[in-house]
Each structure stands twice: as structure tokens, then as C-alpha cells.
Amino acid sequence: MIELKTASEVDACAAAGKIVADVLTAVRAHAKPGVTTGELDRLAADLIADAGATPSFLGYHPSWAPTPYPGVICASVNDAIVHGIPGTQRLRPGDLLSVDLAVHLDGWCADAAFSTVIGEGAPEDVALIETAERALAAGIAAAQAGARLGDIAHAIGTVVRGGGYGLLADHGGHGVGRSMHEAPSVSNEGRPGRGLVLRPGLVIALEPMLQAGGADSYRHDPDGWTIRTADGSRAAHAEHTIAITEDGPRVLTAGRPDC
Fold first, then answer.
1. DSSP for 138-177?
2. What is the pTM of this model?
3. What percent of the chain has pLDDT over 70?
4. Residue 173 pairs with which residues in a beta bridge?
5. CB 157 within 8 Å of CB 131
6. Regions in the chain scoring below 70 on pLDDT
7. Which domains does the chain carry?
8. Phi, psi (degrees; rounded to nearest 5) at 3
9. pLDDT in tens, 109-134
10. How far apart are the first and last CA of the chain?
11. CA-to-CA distance for 189 and 212, rounded, in angstroms?
């Protein structure tokens, strides 16, 4: 069932979204050569606790996962697209890092992600990340009341495919609210004018997940969580939680880093 949020409930998601943005900004600033992904996870955990919120990923156990997720953030490096488990991996100059975070505050959730290069990045990695951000921005711009989900999907996919990149198959955005993942599913590619009509009060996360090699296929690590490009190419992930309003899309995780 798709739940439309009241104005006050959208504001509650936005309050959670501010924490997401602030924590991701701090994580981005701390992501330097020599720092481990586990250190970034601990930083995020401390900041979330200080803000009076709870991490939505920690302990999350969907039916397809072998174990509950053990981290506060998802920290995916280089060919890891999403769901990378933070740990002892030490960041190196030139790494491409994607960080995903969701928090609950007073029963309401927000979710966002960004990608960045560590130190000096290769031009092709910078271009990959910039395309992910442009695809996200195009999806947000298409999220107008009275439009359809297919318009968002088409806007995202057009930017991604135009850049020659692949899209992570079988994955996309989702509804957000009392839970981190709610209906509807939001595809990253589709036909305009098709699908659910966007109505004020709908809160959704848009999240293009790009693969530099141009393919859409992927593989799982033995941990059952980390998803990598099947061809070993690098990946980038960009995400915002937004609300559909009569006045246009409202970005509820505004302020999260975009590069």
C-alpha cells in the first residue's frame, strides 16, 4: 500500500533528512587516504546518537539477506556498487567511495547516498560521479505533481545511458516514511507517461546506481550483502529522499555532499 504523507509527516521525514545530510557531510570530510571504512562507520554512529536518531541499516534483515546488516553506513569502494559492509578496508588515493545512510528520527525515516574520489581522482571516475548526480537531478526535476513514475525513470535513464554507463539491474529507488523501504518501487529506467501518478504527499528515494563498464549485471560478495559490478568496472551511487508537493519536488535530504 502506498501511504501519502501529511505536511507534518513530510516535515518529520525532513528532520530525519537533515541528520542524514549532516552525517554524510561529516563522513565525506573524514574520508581521506589511510582511513578505514570502519572508522567512517563509527563516526556516523556517534553523530547519529548525538542527534537523538537511530541508524536504519543496522540490523536490517530483508528476506534475501543471509544475515542482518552489521553496519551503520554502507561503504562501497571502487567496483562495489552498493551495500558494502564497513570494516578494515583502508582507503587509498584514487579510490572511488560510495556511502549510503538512512536514519529514523521520532519514527520517520530519510535515506541518501553520495560518491566521491579519495584524493586526486581519475577523470573517468569524476565523470562517472558527475553523471550520477546529473541523473539524480533530472529525476528530481521530473518529480512533479501530476506526472508519473515513468517520467522519473525516463529522466534518470536518459542521462545514464546518454553517458554510456550501465545501471544496476533489479535495483532502484523506493518509497520512504515510517519504514526505510516502502511502496512504490522507483525504477531508474522506463517509459515516460507510464506508471503511478505522482500525488502530493508521496515521499520517495531516487537513487541511480551507475556502472562504468556499460553493463547492468552484477555479482554478490560471499558476505551476501556487497554488490559488485560483474565486469570489475567502477560504480557510483547518488540518492536523495524527496517529497512530491503542489509546488514541485522538495528535497528532504538537501545538504548531503554531491562529490
1. HHHHT--TT-BHHHHHHHHHHHHHHTT-EE-TT--EEE-S
2. 0.97
3. 100
4. 186
5. no
6. 259
7. 7-251 (3.90.230.10)
8. -105, 120
9. 999 999 999 998 899 999 999 999 99
10. 35
11. 17
